[in-house]
Write a structure and sequence with these properties.
Two copies of one chain form a homodimer. Chain A has ten helices and eleven strands. Chain A is α/β, with parallel strands linked by helices and about 260 residues long. Chain A has two domains: about 100 residues, 60s Ribosomal Protein L30, Chain: A (2-Layer Sandwich), CATH 3.30.1330; about 160 residues, 3-Layer(aba) Sandwich (Alpha/beta knot), CATH 3.40.1280.
């Protein structure tokens, strides 16, 4: 049975709240996911929270089920008033359920590159919303996961988990320097594909290979030239307007759906 | 010459700050855009701010040019310390330039539907970031603009302007109830295309017509059945993962690039 807590200064409440900060997430190795939809995705993927907080009073049967399963697996469960949930989630209109999950800390050696036809590789992404959206798109296109290269925003931030809509529990996530990624890539099969304005190759037409590693550049600067030079294929998404770039998560999705279309 | 202002309680400072709130934007008919890149896009599109604030001290030559042009056109210009810019933009690391622009309030009668091959129509979008991202994608695919149907987030919010990366100045934006949009659509040429899970039509393959109106549903609920029923064509974007939906701005982009690809 969940303990009922009404104090903001309770240790579990403070611990959950602290996970909104990157430093606390790193120290604890945990991250926050919010809401029944995302937490049900997690459960369906076999992942349960280590700490779970839910609203007091009548609770959705699916939420009750997740809380009971988490408790059976050793999780700490609490019920709290809405004000505390609002404080934890940073939203006036808080979710009714919130959980702290263990961060899966994977290295490249944990990836089976042939387990999926497509992988995202993103360089120095700054916006956690973009990271979460790319994870969500990765699920939709049947990608294996997202390799975050160099210094990127935290994929386990609240914003990233929220934008992923649960894909944070199913897509594999690795954080690694480029100098580590590149030798690993070259040890096995894999076509590295980048988008660039410096090429005349249209993104529609090429024979994309499997596994295809789609390389996405930083939101402001795009890909460094040295990284472009390592690509097996550089392609261009045509621009018909005044600007010369797409949002990074949009470019990733347009490329990924075209790569999949090329395999039909 | 810009006036130098150092007080947070100055009327112009307070007026600019107030534009972060929807109510003030509606009353004033203005909206905020931030940063040299976006404000240069605006200028290149022939749009100048009515109020402009820039950092004190040495100023980028392009920023100086925009400030001078705005003043010549009758704008009020001020220079302010970084703390005031930070307060106005809500960012610790504020942009060096910030402007208040007149909201173009357009109706359907202002649109020439044959001026572009593609238009976005979005129903009850809740996330201003999605609206801005769709505007940015609209520029990239050569769309005419975005028709926001029913009650949506404010396309002139700071978040939407920021995510649009300047496309807010080049894409036409209309806000209108569905009951007004549909009769207008049927008065002239135009194929209404929706994405749906209720169809077996793959999104790759159909002959999309011009002008094509791409209908995007609300982030949580998708399109209402009654709106789907009005579509000339319903197509499905295949999902290869566990979830059954894409981010709204991602779905819009994947569709728009496929529609353009079908016209090659």
């Amino acid at each position: 049975m969940p303990r009922h807590i009404t104090s903001f200064s309770n240790d579990t409440v403070k611990r959950l709240r602290s996970l909104r900060e990157k430093k606390a997430r790193r120290v604890e190795g945990l991250f926050l996911a919010e809401g029944l939809r995302i937490m049900a995705e997690a459960r369906d993927a076999g992942v349960l929270p280590e700490i779970v907080a839910c609203a007091e009073g009548d609770i959705h049967p699916l939420a009750a089920e997740i809380v009971a399963q988490a408790e059976a697996a050793g999780a700490e469960a609490i019920t709290v008033p809405d004000e505390i949930l609002a404080k934890m989630s940073g939203k006036d209109n808080p979710p009714l359920l919130l959980g702290a999950y263990r961060q899966p800390r994977l290295g490249l050696a944990d990836l089976d590159r042939t387990s999926a036809p497509l992988w995202f590789v993103a360089e120095r992404l700054r916006d956690p919303g973009n990271i979460g959206t790319i994870l969500r798109t990765g699920d939709a296109v049947g990608a294996g996961g997202l390799i975050l290269v160099d210094d990127s925003a935290d994929p386990f931030s609240v914003e990233a988990a929220r934008a992923s809509m649960g894909a944070i529990f199913t897509q594999r996530i690795v954080q690694v320097p480029w100098a580590t990624f590149l030798p690993w890539l070259r040890e096995g099969p894999g076509q590295l594909v980048g988008t660039s304005l410096q090429t005349t190759h249209d993104y529609i037409g090429p024979a994309y290979e499997q596994p295809c590693f789609l390389l996405i550049g930083n939101e402001q600067a795009g890909l460094p030239e040295a990284y472009e030079a390592e690509c097996d294929l550089l392609v261009k998404i045509p621009m018909h307007g005044k600007a010369d770039s797409l949002n990074a998560a949009i470019a990733a999705a347009v490329m990924a759906f075209q790569v999949r279309a090329s395999w039909r």
